[in-house]
Amino acid sequence: MKPDIIINKEKKHIIKICRSPKMFKKELYIYQKKLPFTPRLLDHDGKNTLMLEYIDGIPIGELMQPDFSKIAEMYVILHSLELKKGKCICHYDNNPKNYIFSDQKYYMIDFSDWKYAPPETDLIHFLLFWASIYDKVKFEKAFRKFIDSYTKKGTINPVEWEFFIPEVIKRFDNRRKKFEKTEKNPDILINRETLKNIY
Ligand SMILES: Nc1ncnc2c1ncn2[C@@H]1O[C@H](COP(=O)(O)OP(=O)(O)OP(=O)(O)O)[C@@H](O)[C@H]1O
Ligand SMILES: [Mg+2]
After folding, report:
1. Which of 60, 91, 101, 133 is most buried, by the most CB atoms less than 10 A from its CB?
2. What is the rounded CA–CA span in Å between residue 153 and residue 151?
């Protein structure tokens, strides 16, 4: 069951009715932190409904050339909010639909699935979507930009990176199966190899 989203462009807000109290609490937890890259929380009912600022923009999957450096900067901020034994707040649902470009700014939305997990898993999962879309040249460029930018202020442990790739690929592929998406990109395997070159 999907949550209900009511978009009111005129009033510049959206109403998200969450399908469970757990999902609601997760979203609220992040939006109450007032991060510079999340829509503003305008109201909520304490149960299952949130009112958020409407971001009038384009999902990054529809951009010719998303700025992967700027997107990585959002992850650095998110991941540095809380650190517990190598785990941090991870967005987890890293689908390109959950990142919007508007007015020269990038936004992250949809925190219904966030989890405490190693930061590397969030970054790998995000990159896997692009490994399924981009050809090898474009992917390599995006990968480098993303990693170079993230590591300016954030830390990636190369051992954890290598260790987590297989299980994150499994999670990604299971999700694709669930949504009945078939992989059509001839460069997907090369891209997934590129992903290993974190050093
Ligand atoms: N604050 C917002 N500003 C602009 N568009 C939004 C906003 N919140 C949600 N949307 C739009 O509604 C869609 C669904 O919202 P959201 O991602 O929060 O729910 P979801 O649980 O992932 O549902 P879905 O499975 O349809 O993506 C988003 O992909 C985006 O297009
Ligand atoms: Mg979503």
Report:
1. 91
2. 5
